[in-house]
Write a structure and sequence with these properties.
Number of helices: 7
Largest sheet: none
Number of strands: 0
Shape: globular
Structural class: mainly alpha
Radius of gyration: 21 Å
Mean pLDDT: 75
Oligomer: single chain
Order of helices and strands: HHHHHHH
Length: about 200
C-alpha cells in the first residue's frame, strides 16, 4: 500500500483501511465520499460542489467539436457530391456530426473496459446536450450568413464561414459544458470511467 494513499483514506470517520486495498482500486460509493472531506481535501473537480476550471470545460467542448467538425465536413462533401439541396445536405451533416461526436466518446469509454450498453448510455448522457447546442449554433451561423450555404466546397469563403461557425459554437458551448461538469453531468460522467 502506498503511504500517501493510506493517509488519504484514514480520514474517513469510522472507516478502516482494508489491508488488501493495494493500488488504486475504487470501492463502491467511494467516489461520493471524497466530497465529505473537511476543507474539500481530495475533492474531484468534476463532482458537484467541486471547482470546474475553464480548461476542463474547454477540453470537453473540444472533444465534442472534433467529432462534430468531422461529421459536418463529411456531410457537406457527400451532400454536394450527390447534388442534394441545402436542407438535405445540412440534415446529413447534422446526423453525421452527432454520429462522430458520439463515436469518439464511446470509443474512449469502451477502452476503459465498460460493456457496450453501459458505454452507449453514458455517451448519450454525456454528449447529447453539448452536441445539440454546438450544432444549433454552428448551423445557425451557416444558415443565416448570406451566401454561405450556396457557396461551393472549392470556395475559400465557405470554409472561412464554416471555421467561424465552429469557433462561435465552441465559445458558446464551453460555458454549457462547464455548468454540466460542475453538476456531475456531461463529461463528468465520462471522467469517472477513465480512473
Amino acid at each position: 500500500m502506498h503511504a500517501g494513499h493510506q493517509g488519504r483514506h484514514q480520514v474517513h470517520a469510522g472507516q478502516q483501511v482494508h489491508a488488501g486495498h493495494a493500488g488504486h482500486q475504487v470501492h463502491a460509493g467511494h467516489h461520493g465520499e471524497h466530497q465529505d472531506h473537511p476543507g474539500g481535501q481530495g475533492q474531484h473537480p468534476h463532482t458537484p460542489g467541486g471547482k470546474v476550471s475553464w480548461a476542463m470545460a474547454a477540453r470537453a467542448t473540444l472533444h465534442c467539436l472534433t467529432g462534430c467538425a468531422i461529421g459536418e465536413v463529411l456531410g457537406m462533401v457527400i451532400g454536394t457530391a450527390l447534388g442534394w439541396g441545402n436542407v438535405a445536405t445540412m440534415a446529413l451533416a447534422i446526423t453525421l456530426a452527432f454520429t462522430f461526436g458520439y463515436a469518439l466518446t464511446l470509443r474512449g469509454i469502451l477502452k476503459a473496459g465498460v460493456d457496450f450498453r453501459t458505454a452507449f448510455r453514458v455517451t448519450l448522457a454525456a454528449d447529447t446536450l453539448s452536441i445539440a447546442v454546438m450544432e444549433l449554433i454552428d448551423n445557425g451561423v451557416l444558415a443565416f450568413w448570406p451566401g454561405a450555404m450556396d457557396a461551393h466546397l472549392t470556395d475559400a469563403f465557405f470554409w472561412a464561414v464554416l471555421a467561424f461557425a465552429l469557433f462561435v459554437a465552441f465559445v458558446i458551448t464551453t460555458p454549457v459544458n462547464k455548468w454540466m461538469i460542475g453538476r456531475g453531468k456531461g463529461h463528468a460522467v465520462v471522467h469517472q470511467y477513465h480512473h
